[in-house]
Amino acid sequence: MSGAALDKRFPALAGELPRLQLAELPTPLDEAPALARRLGIGALAIKRDDLTSPVYGGNKVRKLEYLLADALATGCDCVVTYGSVGSNHALATSVFAARLGLKAHAVLVDQPASPAVAKKLRYLLHVGATVHHAEGFSDARRVFENIRASHPGGPQRVYDIPWGGSNWRGAIGFVAAALELGEQLPEPADFLYVSGGTLGTVAGLSLGLRAAGWPTRIIAPRAVPSGAGATERAAGMVSAANREIHARDTSFPLFDEPLANIELRPEFYGPGYAEATPEAVEAMDILREAQGLELDLTYTAKAFAGLVADARAGRLAGRRVVFWHTYSSAPYPAAMREADPSQLPPVLRHYLEAASA
Q1: Which residues lie below 8 Å from residue 68, measured CB to CB, with a gap of 6+?
Q2: Whole-model pTM above 0.85?
Q3: Lower CB density within 10 Å: C or N end of the chain?
Q4: Which helix (H) or strand (E) holds 322?
């Protein structure tokens, strides 16, 4: 049952938080012995969060169980969130909001055009999301304020979901995920590789693993243009989530050194957001050939490229390693091809014209 590991370990925390069951948990943990031998890793397992839901999978579903539950609990009938034009998070939020009867607004910033981006835009329109364009991160806030001020139900009924669903409430989903992993592995992992995006997933896993007493080191190859501030943002997110969790269940420890088990890795990012690197392309090919799994070049392929590089450097010899697969493998509905492109802001329509999806 979804959330069982958190319910058992920290029942007071679970009881304090509204939560919906959107994901089918636990997700599988697939051992990959042949791939481990090929790469020179002691043992390798793949955490299949691509299978969180047959509707739309990936890591965002775990966060949305808590975020959308809070939206409903606070009487909201509308959610606003943010991302790039090809944002998995904005799409996942819109898909599940629609299933709950919530109106979704997706505030999107530009990224390189591709068939994958075009597909996500069509899917957003298919589920009835209202799509807005923002010039950048600061402009996205202006767009939110306009949505909030003009909402027919009043501004108090508009729920603000941050980029990537990454705040303390969203991170709870990955505290639970870390405890779930603890029930699946016979012994602690030495390393866990996961994409370093808005860092809510990383923060939750970090706290959950520390609460379980595991010495696992989280390796998070960078996937977003976070720059030099990534370390401070990661530390702030871990600390804030830790304080909020402890305030609701004092049996959950308060930890020193928020980045004690986190290693942020910038060298796999490449020239820009959503721009492929040779290492990511190779990593994608390796996992497809060995396991039949698809990665995306924006996030998961860069994370797996970090794992491959470390394995080739000998760092993972004799070690137990987990790769957390965060990209949805759920098929897109055929009906989304009928979505009306005129519902997109004119400035975004070129994404459909530039890439056949």
Answers
A1: 20, 22, 79, 93, 96, 97, 100, 102
A2: yes
A3: N
A4: strand 320-325
